[in-house]
Write a structure and sequence with these properties.
five-stranded parallel β-sheet; alpha/beta; Rossmann fold; four-stranded parallel β-sheet; 3 domains; binds iron/sulfur cluster
Length: 458
């Protein structure tokens, strides 16, 4: 009973968040920056912010997450952080030698009002940035938005400040994958390759935050989109952006600047969302959808059909990030399950509209909220229980208190491994996700079965 103080009665709460279903903007900005090859994320603020952001990412990805900081003191908090940032850039290029530094702000530097682009210009003028190196920046005040906002802001800045192009269109498309795991980014690239497409994916954290153990420390692993690739994104024939909340802003900015038409899709989690992704790739590919992909789809459909009786009608509560919740909810509806409670900590009315399209007719009793916390979700569950909870590791407290089967999904997952290695996107990812859902439901059925009903074959 770790959350024993959560009351069943729901009273109005306007200015208090308990057990937030989000974290702070710079965490998203750092994750996006790590998707650029040889990039060092830099936090323009106090050491404590950077330490928290690095530890949050390290706990999830189980990799040492590198980021530098302007190390604000009381003096910089009063007089501004220009001197600290100039010194930091000098140190970073002298000691750590990245190709790119991606600066994000924090609550403190935003409140002071530091003009980071002006400080970067001054650093260039003073020769603190070597000629062949690049510094980009984005604004991530964490008193608005969430880690999703920070991710989106950095991806847009990446497209605008690193992106380039000639007037000559090339046989390639841009993929903006949204906030997904490195394994998901690898799977999206594989699907594109199978479709015969040349792609530039940005950001791309595969091979960065899931790099192999080689016995040697490599500060800049092999993965990540390269600067020369970014300089060609303006020549692509299209941009496919996955996730309205994480990728739309960058795709539209790229369209406005380089006339690269964009299509905004949901994350390809589950059957229908993956169908839409493959269908969107088709006109850009000179090939038919290969049999290998059709077979992957067929296997997922077969698995759903075989196991449907264990899924039908099960009530599910979900919390996490909006792009993931949208696709997950659609997948659950396709499985004949009932996502009755859905909460994101990120603000956005478009989330409610999109969820209404998915759940309006299929699950009319569903309660969906944005900018809310896991405390409210727990109260809803106390009032009317569910059969399954899906969310990040913080959900384990609710799952234990209410004795609910629990599938870890989203960010952060701090108490299990596998989320970074096994995809949940595409048909194969859908099969793996379904296996995890079925696993906890069948484990529960086994646990609760009387001896005469404890079946070997289910
Ligand atoms: S919320 Fe603001 S002050 Fe707190 S860690 Fe994030 S950036 Fe720093």
């Amino acid at each position: 009973m770790l959350l024993r103080h959560t009351p069943k009665e729901i009273t109005p709460r306007a200015a208090l968040t308990i057990n937030p279903a989000k974290t702070c903007q710079p965490i998203g900005a750092i994750y996006a920056s790590l998707g650029i090859h040889k990039c060092l994320p830099h936090s323009h603020g106090a050491q404590g912010c950077c330490a928290y952001h690095r530890s949050a990412l390290t706990r999830h990805y189980k990799e040492p997450i590198m980021a530098s900081t302007s190390s604000f003191t009381e003096g910089s908090s009063v007089f501004g952080g220009q001197a600290n940032l100039l010194q930091a850039l000098n140190n970073i290029f002298t000691i750590y030698n990245p190709d790119i530094v991606a600066i994000h702000t924090t609550c403190l530097s935003e409140t002071i009002g530091d003009d980071v682009p002006q400080i970067i210009s001054k650093a260039y003028e003073e020769g603190k940035i070597p000629k062949d190196k690049v510094v980009i920046s984005t604004s991530t005040p964490s008193y608005v938005g969430s880690h999703i906002t920070g991710f989106s802001n950095m991806v847009k800045s990446m497209a605008m400040q690193l992106g380039g192009g000639s007037s000559c269109k090339k046989d390639q498309i841009n993929i903006i994958p949204g906030w997904v795991e490195p394994a998901d980014m690898r799977e999206i690239k594989r699907l594109c390759r199978e479709m015969g497409l040349n792609t530039i994916m940005f950001p791309d954290t595969s091979g960065v935050v899931d790099s192999p153990q080689t016995g040697k420390f490599n500060m800049y692993p092999q993965g990540g989109v390269r600067l020369d690739e970014m300089q060609r994104i303006g020549d692509s024939e299209a941009t496919i952006a996955l996730g309205k909340f994480t990728s739309q802003a960058a795709a539209e900015a790229l369209d406005a600047k380089y006339k690269v038409p964009c299509e905004i899709l949901d994350l390809p989690i589950g059957l229908r969302a993956t169908d839409r992704f493959i269908n969107t790739l088709r006109p850009h590919s000179r090939l038919k959808v290969p049999e290998s992909i059709n077979y992957e789809r067929g296997r997922l459909v077969d698995m759903i059909t075989d196991m449907q009786q264990y899924l039908a009608g099960k009530r599910v509560a979900l919390f996490g990030d909006p792009d993931q919740l949208i696709s997950l909810s659609e997948f659950l509806v396709d499985l004949d399950m009932r996502p009755v409670y859905v909460i994101t900590g990120t603000r956005g009315k478009k989330f409610l509209r999109h969820m209404q399209e998915i759940l309006g007719e299929a699950v009319p009793e569903a309660k969906v909220q944005h900018a809310k916390d896991a405390f409210l979700l727990h109260q809803w569950i106390k009032n009317e229980p569910v059969d399954l909870l899906i969310g990040n590791s913080y959900g384990k407290y609710i799952a234990r208190d209410e004795d609910i089967p629990f599938v870890r999904y989203g960010f952060p997952i701090t108490d299990r491994v596998g989320h970074t290695y096994f995809p949940s996107v595409g048909y194969q990812g859908g099969s793996q996700l379904l296996e995890r859902i079925l696993g906890v439901l069948l484990d529960r059925q086994d646990r609760d079965a009387p001896e005469e009903g404890f079946e070997l074959v289910m």
